[in-house]
Amino acid sequence: MSQYVSRLGRRSPSAPSRLRMPGTPRRPRRVAVLSVHTSPLHQPGTGDAGGMNVYIVELAKRLAAINIEVEIFTRATTGALPPAVELAPGVLVRHVDAGPYEGLAKEELPAQLCAFTHGVMQAWAGHRPGYYDLVHSHYWLSGHVGWLAAERWGVPLVHAMHTMAKVKNAALAEGDTPEPAARVIGETQIVRAADRLIANTSEEAGELVRHYEADPGKVAVVHPGVNLDRFRPADGRAAARHRLSLPQNALVPLFAGRIQPLKAPDVLLRAVAVLLDERPALRSNIVVPIVGGPSGSGLAKPEGLQKLAAKLGIADVVRFQPPVGQDQLADWFRAASVLVMPSYSESFGLVAIEAQAAGTPVLAASVGGLPVAVRDGVTGFLVSGHEPARYARVLRDFADQPHLADSMGQAAARHAQSFGWDTAASVTADVYTAAMHDFRRHVRSHHG
């Protein structure tokens, strides 16, 4: 592995970092990315792996492509993993031993942060001073480690919340567990400590200022991207349906994501029940795929959704699918008439952009970043609230006007083009550069 680092460490003289004019701020050469509770190597849609995993992997690859090396520290979840894995050229994943490998819930991780920090410091101790230029932490658990690491290494801390306890608690699904006070306190401390905060949308930036008294000058908005090579219309809906054994002319409202109250897959099932009550004839021409695995408070009742489908009398039209890889997920998006996202809270809703990039409209709750992701009435529909009848009404429009899926789907694919990861990486690199510039100026003024 040391060969790998030294190989990457020797830059060609033509690398952009050499062309800097005197006095212009310097971009980081190497960034330590912290993702304590979810590994970038995990399958999204399982356990706690979701949009954030995709975000970290895609962003890291694109940063490496513009000559910013990335080392991602994550908690080892099996003993079989090597200490370091090359995910892509210029992207290294370091597995840190902290707590038991298996069966540790996200709620139990705060107790392992000391062990995790120790592992990060051990990796750093093997390097020359100044090895990392900056720390980028994701989610509040990583923020605590990042805060300590950045202070110890004398580098700036950039933090991305992804979700916020105060925002989640203000919009709890029925029967969901509120986020603990310890998380609220932890997030407040990180907001104060970070040199820059990255928000997915301007709404999230506003929430950081409103709920956590973040300094507006430290908050930068970077829209997450989507892998436009993977998520694209490809050979179209008919071919995707053929591959997934779905009827060609059926109404296919799809749910894709972690199965937990926050994501509200139950709202889709209840909406389908309302629709079939009104239109019994539709029963022979509707398939409702639920693609994903139980997560969070959904783990307590993993069979809950199957039982609900049976109770509502729609078990015959619902297809439960375990989480699938990204390429197959793209096929599920292509095959669907519409992706349904009735979430109670979404910091961005990456799945909405992925589905649109694949040429599929989205029916979503008007919460969080979803109004940025979905253009209401053009690339899909936004619904306020979680009343199943409102979702049923939109599904009825898709059933009555089969061309809607195609015309909106084409607009959706065009809309998604502006959410490429290259843009996200370039804006993130600018945030890093500004954070380093301010940090150095601050250090100089203190020592001056």
Observed structural traits:
single chain; 448 residues; alpha/beta; Rossmann fold; 2 domains; eight-stranded mixed sheet; six-stranded parallel sheet; 16 helices; 42% helix; 14% strand; disordered N terminus; metal-binding; transferase
| Strands in their spatial order, largest beta sheet | 3-4-2-1-5-6-7-8
CATH homologous superfamily annotation of the largest domain: Glycogen Phosphorylase B
> So, CATH architecture of the largest domain?
3-Layer(aba) Sandwich
Largest sheet: 8 strands, mixed
Question: How many structural domains can be distinguished in the coordinates?
Answer: 2
> What is the CATH class of the largest domain?
Alpha Beta
CATH topology of the largest domain: Rossmann fold
Give the overall form.
elongated
**How large is the share of residues in beta strands?**
5-15%
Radius of gyration, in angstroms, nearest whole number: 23 Å
Low-confidence stretches: 1-20
Given the helix and strand composition, which structural class is it?
A: alpha/beta
User: SSE order in H/E notation?
Assistant: HEHEEEHEHEHHEHEHEHEHEHEHEHEHHH
Q: What is the number of E strands?
A: 14
Determine the fraction of residues in helical runs and give it as a percent range.
40-55%
State the end-to-end distance: 40 Å
DSSP helical segment count: 16
Overall pLDDT: 88
